[in-house]
Amino acid sequence: xxxxIHAYKxxxxxxxxxxxxxxxxxxxxxREVAPQRKRLNKTKLVYSTGAAVVALGILxxxxxxxxxMANLVSKVPLIGSIFATYGDSGLxxxxxxxLTTVIGESQDVGGNAITVNEVYYDGTRFTIGYTLxxxxxxxxxxxxxxxxxxxxxxxxxxxxxxxxxxxTPTLATGIVDIDAMNDLxxxxxxxxxxxxxxxxxxxxxxxxxxRTDTKRIPIHHQQQAGGIDLTVSDVTLGPAGLVVSFQAVxxxxxxxxxxxxxxxxxxxxxxxGAYSGGSQGKKSxxxxxxxxxxxxxxxxxxxxxxxxxxxxxxxxxxxxVEMDGKGKETLIQSAMETIQKHGKNIKFHTFTISxxx
Amino acid sequence: MNKTLGLVARAKTGDSEAFQMLMHQEKxxxxxxxxxxxxxxxxxxxxxxxTVYKALISISTVKDDQYFTTWLTRILINTAIAYLAKxxxxxxxxxxxxxxxxxxxxxxxxxxxxxxEAMGELEEKYVTxxxxxxxxxxxxxxxxxxxxxxxxxxxxxxxxxxTLLRKKLKGEYFHERKNSCL
Lengths: 357, 182
Description:
The complex is a heterodimer. Chain A is mainly β. Chain A has helices at 2-13, 19-33, 53-60, 89-96, 335-343, and strands at 44-46, 72-75, 101-109, 112-121, 126-133, 148-151, 154-155, 160-168, 171-178, 187-195, 201-209, 215-225, 228-238, 241-251, 260-266, 274-284, 287-296, 305-312, 321-323, 329-331, 351-354.
């Protein structure tokens, strides 16, 4: 038996692996499928986000927009909070406290209906919950990818993610999480456009207002480690999450600081769950300037202090993609090797912040 | 393992950096399995790409984070089988492929080509159980759960798969003991 296993394993293990091609596929797939990061005027990096160009082409080449947009728009009964079911404690808490904005607007296109159930928007997060009810079972990838957004009529490229859960073969719920919120006004008209793989299109126009019950605490903590000048500028606390904002400056070595993560622990020793985050960077005078946020679970009202430990978290392989102002992208060759070499021994200090300010 | 679990949890929330890290951990295994089915780089890369795409758009559906690799393997195998079904054409190792293997490894070339050829000539059900048993080190019970079929069927397919392989390879590489646990 051992001989068989040995022979088989050895033969399969010896198959040559075209690592660079695989890396390229992963990078392109993630970049194409996940929502696009916002583009800056200057050279910037686009990390993570992404996916399969070919597969997307197949999915959407037939997604012609129906001109018949005289869709039935009606108020429909809610099937319950979408937010409460997604295992995201911030959303659940916001939903249970009644802090989300109930929308309940539905559109039926050819027998398939999308209902925007609820929206949450504050200084820490912007999330939309919806349901999809179809005449026949359409499969979990029917809507393909994240919806297109407009803000006051203008296209809004965003960093974020969308998730969908199939409740029954003909009923699914979904949420859309938008991360890059810095440029959003306090009040705006949100255009939300979903596309089905059969060409059906649903478009909503929703008034959005920012909740004002978040608390921004300036920190301006600075430290240096392994050539990274790190500034944690502030944390923003809200009922649905906590956001740590930071800036980092390094020599030009492949956006090392985009691999920064933070461990956040309250004074009782509870580590806050970490969610998504994004970074945007630009190069100037041989240095890289990065601005980013990381989102965590909300803290309870009795928490007075948080201990924050910055640390580096590297993938085992891979690299980055550089995008110039015109959207032209270039793969950064061997970036990960250089980054790991520079970054493996970087250790930051833990620091404590008071939430009583 | 804990780090992988953390990455899976993050990837499920839409963290695409975490997703990329997971893919980089798994890419070599995924590619090799795809290659066993397709026997050429071009098709194996197609299967790999489709697998990454499917994983990305459905990672939030992973029910138990510790079975992420199993979940991903299932996607790869289903994708490879569907891909071959769509393609349904005779695949043979091209000269380029042979040159590539020679250049990359340089040793035991004939043995490996024989084995890859032989594996590729098997029915997909045998390729799948052999990969899961001998490459992924799954137990018969785990394979039965993975494929949702009786353990007896798994044992039979492993045994037949090995017998067929042995015939094709003239008994050169696979020496099965009489008291095999299969």
